Amino acid sequence: MKYSIVLPVYNEEEVISSSILKIIELFVRMDMDWEIVAVDDGSVDNSYETLKTLQADYPSALKVVRHPYNKGNGATIKTGIKTATGDAIICMDSDGQHDPEDILKMLPYLGEYDLVVGARPFKSDGTWYRNLANKFYNGLASQLTGFKIEDLTSGFRIFKADVVKKFYYLFPQRFSYPTTSTLALLKGGYNIKYVPINIQARKAGASKIRLFRDGFRFTTIIFKIILLFEPMRVFLPVTIVSFLLGLVSMIISIIQNARLYVPNSSVILFVLSILAFLLGILAEHTTAIQMAIIERD
Questions:
Q1: What is the C-alpha to C-alpha distance for residues 120 and 98, in angstroms, rounded to an integer?
Q2: Which pLDDT value is given to residue 171?
């Protein structure tokens, strides 16, 4: 089996060389068939020049691709996946936070599972509000999918190449490919394994994640993917809640007026429940057609 390590790079000149050399040392030691695909996402520092210098030293091991301008993390991962030639695709950060040695913990599960995710400890992000937000999103995604999701946003993951190439077109250009890939594979019926890893201290730069801006994006992506793959998990609760609210409104009106009376609010809520149910059925049929096309291709 050949392994392709995809590294998204954006302004990482201080750490990219050491990160790549650690990966090279690991795979040389393990005597595996491998390649590194480093995708520079329009860096404005010397990251690209550093990558080209490394490529000159390891021409058969390191592929370097460059975006002419910054497209976003998701676009960078998609470029890496398209360029990769391996049977398994390992995606990890290039800032030194992911320890290449953890790959050895994750690889044994790749035969039985289609995606192996490096699950971070709960307090790995340092700030209490980010830890709390991660826990909330893990819980929300678990509730909507019906699967226990231990780490929705970890960027350290190993895919079977033939599986991820069915879904990577769904990845958003900028944000957040880990969330999308997890939910898409789960709802596509594929198997996911979580393996505990340790996160190293960031050696340079700062996280580009912003709590409120990106928190809204996380929520939007979660609902978008659920609507795409299992829409009734969203439409059915809306149907039930709308119907019950309409029923309660009608009962209150009957009690207040001492006669059968259906207020406008009840009519609107009943119509909303019917529309939500019909939209859910239509979306389910659309999903079935989409999945048939994905499996055929």
A1: 10
A2: 87
Instruction: Name the nearest CA neighbour of 208 among 176, 180, 183.
Output: 176
pLDDT tens digits, one per residue of 14-23: 999 999 999 9
With 0.90 as the threshold, say if the pTM is over it. Answer: no
CB 104 within 8 A of CB 17: no
**Number of Cβ atoms within 10 Å of the Cβ of 107:** 18
Task: Please count the helices (runs of H) and the strands (runs of E) in the chain.
Answer: 10, 7
| Domain range summary for the chain, segments of one domain joined by + | 2-229, 232-296
**Left, alpha or beta for 222 (phi > 0: left; psi -120 to 50: alpha)?**
alpha
Measure the CA–CA gap between 120 and 25, rounded to whole angstroms.
24
Structure-block tokens of residue 127: 């700030």
What is the structure's pLDDT at 202? 63
pLDDT bracket for residue 39 (50, 70, 90) = very high
The CATH classification number of 2-229 equals: 3.90.550.10
Parallel, antiparallel or unpaired: strands 2-9 and 88-91: parallel
